[in-house]
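Appendix C reproduces, verbatim, an entry submitted by the partner laboratory led by Prof. M.T., so that reviewers can inspect both the input and the predicted structure.
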Amino acid sequence: MTSFALVIVTTLAWKHAGLVGEEINVEHIHDLGKLMFGFLIFWAYISFGEFFLIWYAAIPEETVYYHRRWDDSTWRLISMTIVGLKFIFPFYLTMSRNAKRNNAFIFFGAAWILATHFLEIFYWIMPYYRPFQPVPYAGIWVEACCVLATVGVYVSFVLYRMRKHSLIAVGDPRLSRALDFAQV
């Protein structure tokens, strides 16, 4: 889901910058939006299935993670925020066909999914030291800067190398079929 969201954001940014011209049309973005929407539902299914199996098995080594996160009000708020902001809001935002065919809507939905993905990663990897200890907000800025620095170095390198190559696969024998893509 996050990969499709990143592809949609990147593709629409390239399209807006004029790097791909009219080679990528609304049908391509619509299909990427359908795939992202499908994997959004699959992510919710897998996440709930994992939670349900751990909870139902009641193995103390595994359930203590959820108990501690649910008993603390801040972690509970983050848990509910992930459900609301990473599944419910994007589900209704990208569900309709018109939203997937509108570049602004699908860009916003994909960017939203990317942003909430970092919130979910924060939820999964941050340690829980003791009861009622506040969520380590000071660490958020350090980790956010590390992520931004890593992404910045990577994107800078890719953009530097991309100047020497075409974004469209010019020698591909199936290029004309891909460019004439239309929804059937």
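The helical segments are 2-17, 26-57, 60-71, 73-94, 97-101, 103-125, 137-162, 175-179. Additional entries are available on request from the coordinating office.
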